[in-house]
Design goal:
heterodimer, A: about 170 residues, alpha+beta, 4 helices, 5 strands, about 15% strand, globular, B: about 110 residues, mainly alpha, two-stranded antiparallel ribbon, 2 strands
Chain lengths: ~170, ~110
């Protein structure tokens, strides 16, 4: 580590290690991940790559819509999911991540910023609850999102759902 | 004056183990970071989320000076710097020229 850029790179790697640790705890098969060190082959935005890999393997179904996709069909799909999440307006600069899983309980809509452990992320994600699913509306106009933070929140929701299910099963058994 | 080497040694050993154990998991995170361990070789049971966050935050403390050009000076006593020094030392030892002393026996 010789420059401030090296320091930022080290911090980004640590943030990615944190995401891997959360994924491991949540029960994701670690063989699905390729790399946590930013490189030109797997992309410099490793955090997004790791996030998508983690949710794809943790939840039953996942899909995402990139920002600024203005095809009529995409706009219609985006509106469908946002309406389901009780959101009236849609902005073309915002992206969407849709997750469906029977284990996801209802939860209060939440706002996840970029401040887990770092202070330079300025993007944000709104996490909306839908029936047996999650809709994430994200805005990276003013900076990247800390996807480790978002993933930790999702893993927490799923854990709560699994725990509720276990408790219900135990009650029925009793 | 009699010096109790036994007692002295026991004291040092017990304290050494205590300090190492205290920072073991955070040091493991540093080791993963510095060596860029492959994902399948990381022991995820060896550390928890707080260890990564602590390591992340402590990196700022390793910097003692920053030049206008962005070059930084590291604290030689910081765990990150010590780990880097340790890695360099191991690398040097691995690459030492092999030396075999001449045998006094003609058949060896």
């Amino acid at each position: 580590m010789e420059t401030m850029d090296d320091l930022y790179a080290c911090k980004e790697i640590l943030n990615n290690i944190l995401l891997l640790k959360v994924a491991h705890r949540a029960g994701v098969d670690m063989n699905v991940f390729h790399s946590y060190i930013p490189n030109e082959f797997y992309g410099f935005d490793q955090s997004w790559e790791l996030f998508i890999t983690a949710i794809t393997n943790l939840f039953e179904q996942c899909d995402f819509i990139a920002p600024y996709d203005d095809e009529a069909e995409v706009i219609e799909t985006k509106s469908y999911w946002l309406n389901l999440a009780k959101q009236e307006s849609q902005e073309d600069y915002k992206g969407l991540v849709i997750i469906l899983d029977d284990g996801i309980p209802q939860f209060d809509d939440s706002y996840v910023g970029g401040y887990t452990i770092s202070n330079w992320y300025t993007g944000y994600a709104e996490v909306h609850s839908i029936e047996k699913g999650i809709v994430i509306e994200y805005d990276e106009e003013d900076g990247a999102i800390d996807w480790t933070n978002v993933f930790a929140f999702l893993a927490q929701i799923l854990e709560r759902g699994t725990r509720n299910k276990e408790e219900l099963t135990n009650e029925v058994a009793v | 004056m009699n010096f109790d080497f036994e007692y002295f040694n026991n004291q040092i050993e017990s304290q050494k183990i205590e300090i190492v154990n205290k920072h073991q998991s955070a040091n493991y995170v540093l080791m993963v970071l510095i060596n860029g361990l492959p994902i399948d070789q990381i022991n995820y049971e060896a550390f928890d989320e707080d260890d990564v966050i602590d390591t992340y935050l402590s990196l700022d403390e390793a910097i003692t000076n920053e030049s206008i050009e962005g070059e930084i000076t590291l604290d030689p006593n910081h765990s990150y710097t010590r780990m880097i020094a340790l890695r360099s030392k191991i690398y040097e030892m691995e690459n030492l020229e092999k030396f075999r002393p001449p045998s006094p026996f003609s058949f060896l």
